[in-house]
Amino acid sequence: MKLEIKNLKKTYKDKTAVDGVNLEITPGVWGLLGANGAGKTTLMRMVAGILTPTEGEILYDGIPIKEMGEAYRDIFGYLPQTFGFYPEFRVRDYLEYMAALKGLTRKDTARKIEELMEKLTLKEVRNKQIRKLSGGMQRRVGIAQALLNNPEILILDEPTSGLDPGERIRFRNLLSEFAKDRIVVISTHIVPDVEYIATCNILMKDGAIIDIGTTEELVKMVKGKVWEVSLTQEKLGPYEARLKIINVRNEDTGNVRMRYLSDIPVLPGSQSVPPRLEDLYLWLFSGKEEA
Ligand SMILES: Nc1ncnc2c1ncn2[C@@H]1O[C@H](COP(=O)(O)OP(=O)(O)OP(=O)(O)O)[C@@H](O)[C@H]1O
Hints:
The protein is α/β, with parallel strands linked by helices. The protein is built from eleven helices and 14 strands.
């Protein structure tokens, strides 16, 4: 099973959102990381077959997806970034409706909906209208509809926005299990969502792919540039504007522990620490003024 993206380009009037992307995606979880406006959504919508590329093509096992039509939809699941369709529908009715659109039989529909409601803890809201659900709950319904047809390719755009930490962990586990022999692509700003489950991460900037690799391979870029130091809250102030700070957390001593990015240690007592994917994300995608 292979998805090939060849020289894919999308231009909106004078804006090139995706600029010559080449990718070969095989089964596993793929994290698509990039700042706002990098072109992630545009790329995913083209892969989902709902946006026509300006140039280039997408092939599934060697066949252009535009020639596959219905057959591509049968093997595809997609959770868009903004999910708010059919707000008047009750959860169960909506899932049944989506299952019918995806061509599931009555028997498969009942079985699959039960299974997904269980896995995504949706049972207690089965008879509620979607518009009355919390944001996190709506997202779970969105995830459920994307999984209804047991897709071979699953594309999720910002799937965990609105989910609480417990839900995020459950969701990650669900995806890891699901991706064993399938292609799952997750676009996100929430780096920890893909850090431990992604087989491979795709880094995107200004419409282009700037790097691809496992978390372990990619974090090497910031090896020796991540520091931690303990300091008083008052001393932190002047550094906040100058440094790329990853996080600051309170210590039992009353001091704060600051994790920051820099080529050299800036504060006395700074210790070099092993890099994480979030450190790299900040290094690549955030200007100093944002840090
Ligand atoms: N329909 C459109 N018309 C014009 N420009 C667009 C359109 N859709 C997207 N863009 C522009 O293309 C660029 C890429 O947008 P896209 O939404 O794909 O990025 P993204 O990486 O998904 O960002 P975000 O995480 O904020 O959704 C942005 O500069 C955006 O303003």
